[in-house]
């Protein structure tokens, strides 16, 4: 089964391609900086501007904030890029600031 592709829009939506005959369908609403699909779990991982690391199940809908909100007691503030190692079952992402919040 083909998964995606996925894309984000300027009005805070994530769209999923449904095939050449069906076009694009709204999959989730968030403010994403990076998207990565986990082929093993069929979940879409999102780095969100306001809520950090998020995940959406294979049916789409409301994204859930993951439990990791800090590292070594320093809260994530400016989460950015994202990657998944499916073999090691590790999610990598970047927090580019410990000073500035991503809210404006």
Task: Explain what the structure shows.
The protein has 104 residues and is mainly β. The protein contains no helices and eleven strands. The strands form four sheets. A four-stranded antiparallel beta sheet has the order 4-5-6-7, with no helix packed on it. Strands 1-2-3 form a three-stranded antiparallel beta sheet, with no helix packed on it. A two-stranded antiparallel ribbon has the order 8-9. A hairpin with a 4-residue loop joins strand 10 and strand 11 (90-95). The N and C termini lie far apart (40 Å). The mean pLDDT is 81.
Q: How many distinct beta strands?
A: 11
Q: Spans with pLDDT under 50 lasting ≥5 residues?
A: none
Rg over CA atoms:
14 Å
Q: What does the overall shape look like? A: globular
Strand order of the largest sheet: 4-5-6-7
The amount of helix comes to under 10%
Task: Give the ordered list of helices and strands.
Answer: EEEEEEEEEEE
Mean pLDDT: 81
